[in-house]
Specification:
Length: 279
């Protein structure tokens, strides 16, 4: 039988966990050079970096979803410029047949800057690969979610993406429209229709797609998006056994305490004194 004290401790612990802010439950990421996240496709002056939003002011800082940091994505002035970050877990997330159900979901918070065209904004990409396709119709594809095809009330129509504030986007099994780069019997639609949900792509692509591994996801801006600035944070993934939320925070250098140099001098003095005794 559980004692009243243990019951109280359990209730207190549960209450504490439920009361914790979302940022406390998110995995902090301060480095884009190693696992799990890394800078991937950047070209022609495109950049991807984690920045501290403190002092930026306005909605960018004040409405940021988690704490003070975010990934800043910026493209250069040419159409070949791009800036992306990628998550590639060891072994991938799992196969399409194992992942594609009503529990599958991805979400991210995005801020679009005021420069460049009105439609481009940080997009969400899913990378699939089947190393042994049997139908000879390709074993690789990306399914890409673009905010400009997914504006509330205008899904499927090309629309300007609101700039100047944070917006949340979600892709799950039945909602969110994505285009395909080709493969598994589909052609590359080059950023436009056909646009389908993950459920519809599952029934459209050939049987080899079911055995394809979702080996990575990316966030960023591809080619033909010059002069863009965007920010992303609060990335949540629920795919099979993989369930995490990521909080991008700029690394903070911790200064050495003022007493540390004095302590080191003292230790060196003691060592020198001991050495003289034994010499």
């Amino acid at each position: 039988m559980i004692s009243n004290k243990k019951k109280a401790d359990i209730v207190l612990a549960t209450t504490f966990i439920l009361a914790m802010p979302a940022a406390a439950l998110a995995a902090p990421i301060s480095d884009l050079d190693n696992q799990p996240w890394q800078t991937s496709l950047t070209a022609a002056d495109g950049t991807a970096e984690i920045v501290d939003l403190t002092g930026f002011g306005g909605n960018l800082e004040n409405n940021a979803p988690l704490q003070t940091g975010a990934v800043k994505l910026q493209t250069g002035s040419t159409t070949g410029s791009r800036a992306e970050i990628q998550l590639r877990p060891i072994g991938g997330f799992g196969t399409v047949n194992d992942l594609f159900d009503t529990n599958l979901s991805f979400s991210y918070s995005m801020y679009k800057g005021s420069t460049g065209a009105a439609e481009p904004a940080p997009s969400f990409k899913m990378q699939f690969y089947n190393s042994s396709p049997t139908l000879n119709q390709g074993g690789y594809t990306q399914l890409i979610f673009e905010p400009y095809w997914n504006q509330l009330g205008a899904e499927g129509s090309s629309s300007a993406v609101p700039a100047g504030d944070w917006t949340d986007y979600t892709v799950n099994f039945t909602s969110g429209l994505l285009w395909s780069t080709g493969g598994f019997g589909a052609s590359n639609s080059a950023g436009g229709p056909p646009l389908r949900s993950l459920e519809d792509w599952l029934s459209t692509l050939n049987a080899d797609f079911g055995d394809a591994n979702l080996f990575g996801i990316s966030l960023g801006m591809g080619t033909n998006t010059p002069n863009q600035i965007g920010y992303v944070d609060n990335v949540s993934i629920n795919a099979g056994n993989y369930s995490k939320t990521f909080d991008f925070e700029a690394a903070v250098e911790v200064p050495a305490p003022a007493s540390l140099p004095l302590l080191l001098i003292g230790l060196l003095g003691m060592a020198a004194k001991r050495f003289r005794r034994h010499s």
